[in-house]
């Protein structure tokens, strides 16, 4: 029994699918086509002539031409074919890469191609090493010697068989003609470089962990199997669906809407911190900054969801609702979110609290939902679970989205925020300045510290008279800011 | 001399194969009906609509940071909401929290198992979750004290019967979603370790999951070795949609509504280990088993860029929360941020 590793067996036995092998084989067959493949010729190596040798540069130009890719990609692709063992180098045989010069390679014989079906056995490796040992003592490399000793120890019970096989193969090889023997030896050696790589090298055969289910096995066809498929298909048929033009249209529209906001597609103002090592962009876009950027405010207009998910946007919206005396809707929605995503232990309490504050008759912040929804919700609250307020929450969300959101976008609160929003100028750093920026990278405050600060301020707020939340939040975010060379000085802090 | 087969068993066998044949026909008919229904609404192809869309320019994307410190294959990574910190996990059992911007290591945890295949950053930035061959998902609150052993405060949250392949916090630090080699996904309460919901439906190992918060409901998608990607309703535990692929295991998933395009190129024969979309959804980044990253134009279906740099398989890839960069982790023991 060969011990492969010391992992606890979790019932994993099967190798994952190596889907690339079939594709690689297709490419190999094309490459070997006598008319359209890579051109080959016999090459002299020391005193023997190797037939059908190909050069690295020929392989690369064939790949570049066939797949319309550049040299770098062709090199990567070619080297992967060598790493998998479909092509092997004649010189420098331990480095499984394609060199873009006259270095020689050969196509590996299909007998030695990697296969999905079964892993390469230690028994075969032991026979191979034993055979080489028989031929000439001391020829094994250090890692091969170590492997040989290890296998000799663990396969001791069948060592006679291994030595017998090795001797038989050695004898059979001697009967071959010299050129054939040289070729076969090269092929066999290449095979083992791929499947038993020297330590410290990257192996393309490394696939990670085994899987629990055999990827090649088809699920057994039982009545139950068909039963499940049919239930699933029925459900799929009954599911509502939209026209492709609608869903694809939505996808295209989304891409277009957010194009200007995607740092990979449009300039990030003032600059992308990862590229210029200047973090002004992050400072200007802190979660609770007092003055947002114009881009950020624009994003709030894309959808109600965007406005709510940005803490600064939500604050602005809250201010607007306060002026309209309909702040309870947002407060209720936030309470529902807290219930849904909160910890299980306090769920019951929270549900009760929400009921008392928002739903009960005469509640201090009573929300206006239709009778039917109220009935369902109140009934559900008798046996509260985290989704008990879903119906009411959806109702209120839709109300805010269809009514308040539109009015917010036309309101003085929003217009004021938009007017004050900043639009930073693009950084134009010289190479020398960029180098300097790289040297000046500074760490930022840990999220742990920020959360602590937030907690302390919230506690202070709860204790003191009501304070405008946006002012408190902006003060907090200022303490966390770095000083950046190109920023405008911040507005004086209000105490 | 052989004894003749027992008559009743022979009849039962014949009956079973008849039933199976009948069921198969019924199932195929239904599938045909589903295809019909789908075809009725299939009035346009993505590439047709995309013709009117402007093409993308040339891209200059480079490695901006290389994070060295793991002693073995990097298996997973996740971004912190602060857009610069990340957590990564490795085959050697180490989980490291980095400030990717300065490349400083801030925290390190040694797990009691190897192959930590899943790790996630909590939304607050104050904790990380990880798991792997220990079949569990544990949450480690982070501490400012460098000398504190984070393992002391660890909370064991999820328990599966096989390896943990992926984990993700939901909208808060209080709940975690996990997927496992045992074929299931599950939602857990972090404080108590209580199982809130389990999701059954995959026929084989589940390898990945991704959350899709929407306005009114909450769903997530999971992908598995059974070649299926399932969309689940977190509330009911039901599978509400399923996509099947033709080729191989689904190693990574990123929320999209239906399969509208397949991104492939003849010169790319290796599997993708991880994917993520750019902020606008126009670009799709894929980390491949041939050590490269391919960047696709989602609408046109063309490959816009190929990035080299890693010296072994790219095992994990995620775009940062504000879309300014993406980070890759590789079996070459390093992580790289690209922009």
Automatic annotation (TrEMBL), chain A:
Range of residues in the leader sequence: none
Boundaries of every DEP domain copy: 34-109
Positions of the RGS domain: 303-418
Entry keyword set: Signal transduction inhibitor
Location of region: Disordered: 474-495
SUPFAM superfamilies linked: Regulator of G-protein signaling, RGS, Transducin (heterotrimeric G protein), gamma chain, Winged helix' DNA-binding domain
Gene Ontology CC: one annotated term: neuron projection
InterPro entries referenced in this protein's UniProt entry, alphabetically: DEP_dom (IPR000591), G-protein_gamma-like_dom (IPR015898), GGL_sf (IPR036284), RGS (IPR016137), RGS6/7/9/11 (IPR047016), RGS6/7/9/11_DHEX_sf (IPR047017), RGS_DHEX (IPR040759), RGS_sf (IPR036305)
Any one GO BP annotation for this protein: intracellular signal transduction
GO molecular function: GTPase activator activity
PANTHER family in UniProt: LP21163P, REGULATOR OF G-PROTEIN SIGNALING 9
Name of the protein described by the UniProt record: Putative regulator of G-protein signaling 9
Organism field: Scophthalmus maximus (Turbot)
Automatic annotation (TrEMBL), chain B:
Xref: InterPro entries: G-protein_beta_1-5, WD40/YVTN_repeat-like_dom_sf, WD40_G-protein_beta-like, WD40_PAC1, WD40_repeat_CS, WD40_repeat_dom_sf, WD40_rpt
Pfam families in UniProt: WD40 (PF00400), WD40_Gbeta (PF25391)
Keyword DNA-binding assigned: no
Keyword entries, A-Z: Repeat, Transducer, WD repeat
Family: Belongs to the WD repeat G protein beta family.
Name of the gene encoding the protein in the UniProt record: gnb5a
Lineage: Eukaryota, Metazoa, Chordata, Craniata, Vertebrata
GO process annotations (BP): signal transduction
WD repeats, residue ranges: 67-108, 157-198, 199-242, 272-306, 307-339
PROSITE patterns: WD_REPEATS_1, WD_REPEATS_2, WD_REPEATS_REGION
Name used for this protein in its record: G protein subunit beta 5
């Amino acid at each position: 029994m060969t011990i492969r590793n010391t992992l606890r067996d979790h019932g994993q036995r099967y190798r994952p699918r190596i889907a690339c092998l079939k594709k690689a084989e297709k490419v190999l067959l094309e490459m070997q086509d006598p008319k359209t493949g890579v051109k080959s010729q016999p090459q002299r190596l020391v005193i023997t002539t190797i037939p059908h040798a190909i050069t690295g540069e020929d392989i690369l130009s064939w790949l570049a031409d066939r797949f319309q890719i550049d040299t770098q990609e062709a090199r990567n692709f070619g080297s992967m074919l060598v790493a998998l063992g479909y092509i092997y180098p004649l010189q420098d045989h331990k480095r499984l890469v394609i060199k873009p010069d006259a270095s020689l390679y050969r196509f590996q014989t299909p007998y030695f191609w990697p296969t999905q079906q079964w892993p390469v056995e230690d028994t075969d490796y032991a026979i191979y090493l034993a055979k080489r040992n028989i031929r000439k003592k001391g020829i094994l490399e250090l890692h091969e010697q170590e492997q040989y000793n290890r296998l000799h120890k663990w396969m001791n019970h069948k060592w006679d068989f291994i030595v017998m096989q090795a001797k038989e193969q050695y004898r059979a090889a001697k009967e071959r003609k010299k050129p054939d023997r040289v070729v076969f030896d090269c092929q066999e050696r290449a095979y083992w470089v791929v499947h038993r790589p020297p330590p410290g090298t990257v192996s393309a055969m490394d696939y990670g962990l085994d899987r629990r289910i055999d990827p090649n096995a088809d699920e057994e066809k039982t009545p139950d199997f068909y039963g499940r498929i049919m239930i699933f298909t029925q459900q799929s048929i009954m599911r509502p669906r939209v026209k492709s033009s609608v869903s694809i249209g939505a996808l295209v529209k989304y891409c277009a809407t957010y194009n200007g906001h995607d740092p990979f597609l449009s300039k990030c103002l003032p600059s992308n911190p990862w590229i210029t090592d200047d973090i002004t962009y992050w400072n200007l876009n802190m979660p609770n900054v007092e003055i947002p950027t114009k881009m950020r405010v624009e994003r709030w207009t894309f959808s109600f969801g965007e406005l709510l998910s940005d803490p600064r946007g939500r604050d602005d919206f809250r201010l607007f609702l306060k002026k309209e005396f309909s702040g309870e809707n947002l407060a209720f929605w936030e309470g529902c979110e807290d219930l849904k995503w909160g910890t299980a232990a306090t769920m019951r309490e929270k549900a009760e609290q929400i009921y008392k504050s928002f739903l009960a008759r005469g509640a201090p912040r009573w929300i206006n939902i239709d009778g039917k929804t109220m009935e369902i919700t109140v009934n559900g609250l008798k046996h509260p679970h985290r989704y008990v307020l879903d119906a009411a929450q959806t109702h209120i969300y839709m109300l805010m989205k269809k009514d308040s959101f539109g009015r917010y976008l036309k309101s003085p609160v929003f217009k004021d925020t938009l007017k004050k929003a900043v639009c930073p100028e693009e950084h134009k750093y010289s190479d020398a300045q960029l180098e300097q920026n790289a040297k000046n990278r500074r760490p930022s405050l840990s999220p742990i510290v920020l959360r602590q600060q937030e907690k302390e301020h919230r506690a202070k707020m709860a204790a003191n008279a009501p304070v405008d939340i946006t002012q408190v939040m902006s003060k907090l975010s200022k303490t966390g800011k770095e000083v950046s060379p190109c920023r405008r000085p911040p507005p004086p802090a209000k105490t | 001399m052989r004894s003749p087969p027992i008559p009743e068993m022979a009849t039962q066998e014949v009956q079973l194969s008849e039933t199976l044949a009948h069921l198969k026909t019924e199932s195929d008919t239904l599938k045909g009906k589903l295809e019909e229904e789908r075809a009725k609404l299939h009035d346009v192809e993505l590439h047709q609509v995309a013709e009117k869309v402007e093409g993308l320019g040339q891209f200059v994307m480079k490695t901006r940071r290389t994070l060295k410190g793991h002693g073995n294959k990097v298996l997973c990574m996740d971004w912190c909401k602060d857009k610069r910190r990340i957590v990564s996990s490795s085959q050697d059992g180490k989980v490291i929290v980095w400030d990717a911007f300065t490349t400083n290591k801030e925290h390190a945890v040694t797990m009691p198992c190897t192959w930590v295949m899943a790790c996630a950053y909590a939304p607050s930035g104050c904790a990380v979750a990880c798991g792997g061959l220990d079949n569990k998902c544990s949450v480690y609150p982070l501490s400012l004290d460098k000398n504190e052993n984070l393992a002391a405060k660890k909370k064991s949250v999820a328990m599966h019967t096989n390896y943990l392949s992926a984990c993700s916090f939901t909208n808060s630090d209080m709940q975690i979603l996990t997927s496992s080699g045992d074929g299931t996904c599950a939602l857990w309460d972090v404080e108590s370790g209580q199982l809130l919901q389990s999701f059954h439906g995959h026929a084989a190992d589940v390898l990945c999951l991704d959350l899709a918060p929407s306005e009114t409901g909450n769903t997530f998608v999971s992908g598995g070795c059974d070649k299926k990607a399932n969309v689940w309703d977190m509330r009911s535990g039901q599978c509400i949609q399923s996509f099947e692929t033709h080729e191989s295991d689904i190693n990574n998933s990123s929320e999209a509504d239906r399969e509208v395009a397949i991104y492939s190129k003849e010169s790319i024969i290796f599997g993708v280990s991880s994917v993520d979309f750019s902020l606008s959804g126009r670009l799709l980044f894929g980390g491949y088993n041939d050590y490269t990253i391919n960047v696709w134009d989602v609408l046109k279906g063309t490959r816009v860029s190929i990035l080299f740099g890693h010296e072994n398989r790219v095992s994990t890839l995620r775009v940062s929360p504000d879309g300014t960069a993406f980070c890759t982790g590789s079996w070459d023991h390093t992580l790289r941020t690209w922009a």
